[in-house]
C-alpha cells in the first residue's frame, strides 16, 4: 500500500462489509480489512493506524467490550472513530468506553445514505488528524532548528566576546607603549647632539614602532568589524539574500551617516524614503525586514507613518528615531507600536549596529515562523498521493483567479478531466494499481501545462486545471494535447499493458464579460465544466466537451 492508503477495519458479517464497500466505492484511498474474531481485531488495532472501525457487536466470535478496551489503551491521537451496527434504538453501552465524537451507531435495516454520511465524516476527521500531525511535526522541526541555531549562536557569541575582550585588553595595554616609543624616537632623531653611530638603531626602533602601530590599527578594524554579525535572509526560492532596511527620513546627511555606521557591521541593503507616501510605496515594493522612521518627514509627522504601518500589521520591526529636543515623540512611538526609539545624536555606531542587528534577528525569526505556517497551510491544501492541490486548494485558487479576471477583464478557463474506467481498473488490479494510475496521470497532466496554470485533484479520479488568461479556444487546444498525451502512454500493471484515456470538460468566460454576469460566478463556471465532463463520459469517453 502507498503511504496515503487509509486502512478501515470492518468487524461485521460479509453482508454488512459489502454494504460498507458499496457506499464508499468512490474513495480509492480506503483499504478495507475484515476481521470476525476478537483476536484478529486486536491484532489489527495494535499494528496500524486506522481511519475508522465499523463494528457489529452481535457478531458471534467478537467480544465487543474487549475490542473497545483495546481501543482505550491507544494514545488519544491514534484512537479511530467507531461506527456500531445495532438492532434497536437504545443507546449502546459501548458509548461509555469510547470518548465522545469518536463513536456513533446506525440501526438495522441499514440505510446506505446514512452509513455513507457518517463514514464520510469519520474519513474527513481522519484526514484532518493526519494533516494536524504533519503540522505538529513541521513545527517541531522548526523548533529544533531554532534551538540548534540558538545554541550555536550563543556559543559563537561567547567565544567572540572572549576574543574581543582579550583583543581590547591587548590594544589598550600596547597602544600607550607604542605611542611612547614613537614619541621618544622622534625626539631622539631631532636631537642635535645624537651620536652618528646611534642613528641606525633609532631608525630601526622607529620603524618597528610604525609596524606595531599599523598592527594595532588592523586589530582595531577587526574588532569593530566583528562587533556585529551579517544578517542574511532566505527568500522564497531558498536563495540567501542580505537584509533590507528602510529608513524614512527627509535628511540625506542623516541617512548617509546611518548607512556609513551600518555598512561594515551589518550585511543589509539600506533604502531611503523622504515622506509617508514614498515610504509606503518603497515598503510595498522591497518588503523591508526592518523599518527606521524619523519623527519628522516631508509630509508630516513620522508618527503618522508608524500608525499606518501598525494598522497594516507590518511584520518588520519598527524603530523610531528622534533628536534630543523631541524625546517625547519617542515615548509616543513606543505607545503606538514601535519596538524602540533612538536619539541619534546620543547613539554610537556600535550601539546603532547592535540595535539593528537584534531587530534583524527578530525579523529572521518572524520570517521562519511565517514560512513554517505557510508550509502547514500547504499541507492542509495538498493531496497526499499526487502532491497536487486538493479540492479546497482548487476552490481557493479559482476564487483568486476569478477576482483577478473581474478586475482586469481577463479571460479565464477551467478544465475537468476524468480517468475513464478507473473504478474497473481499481477493482481488477487493486488499490495499489489505482494509486499508480492516479500518480501517472497527474504527472502527465502537470507536464503539459504552463507554470501559471494550477492542476488539482478534484475528486477520486477527477483532476481540475485552472487556466488564467485563457479563452475557450486555447483551453480546448490544451485539452486535446492532454488527452493525446495520456492516450499515447501505455501503463504496465504486472504483465498487463493498460491503455489509459481521459474524458475532459471545459468551461470559460471572456475577458469582456460584464462583472454582474452569472457566468462569472465560481459555482456557475464549475457547474458548466461538470456538465461538459458528464457529456463526454456519457458519449463513450476519451473525448472533449465544452
Strand fraction = 15-25%
Can you summarize the main beta sheet?
6 strands, mixed
Structural class: alpha/beta
Tally of helical segments: 15
In words, what does this structure look like?
The chain is α/β, with parallel strands linked by helices. 53% of the residues lie in helices and 18% in strands. It is built from 15 helices and 20 strands. The chain has helices at residues 14-23, 38-47, 64-72, 112-190, 199-226, 252-263, 276-286, 302-311, 327-336, 349-380, 391-408, 422-429, 431-448, 472-487, 522-538; strands at residues 6-11, 30-34, 50-55, 82-86, 103-107, 232-234, 240-248, 268-273, 290-294, 296-297, 300-301, 318-322, 340-343, 412-419, 454-457, 462-468, 490-493, 496-499, 502-509, 544-545. The strands form five sheets. Strands 6, 7, 8, 9, 12 and 13 form a six-stranded mixed beta sheet that branches. Strands 2-1-3-4-5 form a five-stranded parallel beta sheet, with helices on both faces. A five-stranded mixed beta sheet has the order 15-16-14-19-20, with helices on both faces. Helix 2 runs parallel beside helix 3, helix 4 (112-190) runs antiparallel to helix 10 (349-380) and helix 8 runs parallel beside helix 9. The chain starts with 5 loop residues before the first strand and ends with a strand. The model has no long low-confidence stretch (mean pLDDT 82).
